[in-house]
Write a structure and sequence with these properties.
Length: 78
């Protein structure tokens, strides 16, 4: 078993305080939660999975067009 828990990036949907941990969450914020915390908060409707932001640093280049093939010539029969 791994010593570090799996972390999940979650977006908080409503303001709430986790009374057991005395931790406050603000709606709209993105938080890193353990998989267990995320499952509990999601079941209660307090968070949703964060969608990864698209990488805008490297513009995507379109694929190169394929070259046209030269037509095949018929072989002469001997």
């Amino acid at each position: 078993m791994s010593a570090t828990p799996k972390m999940v990036s979650a977006t908080v949907t409503t303001d709430f305080t986790d009374a057991g941990r005395d931790r406050k969450f603000v709606a709209g914020a993105t938080e890193e939660l353990t998989a267990g915390e995320f499952a509990n908060y999601r079941a209660a409707g307090l968070v949703e999975a964060s969608v990864p932001k698209p990488v805008a640093d490297a513009p995507s280049s379109p694929a190169k067009p394929k070259r046209a093939r030269a037509p095949r010539t018929a072989k002469a029969k001997s």
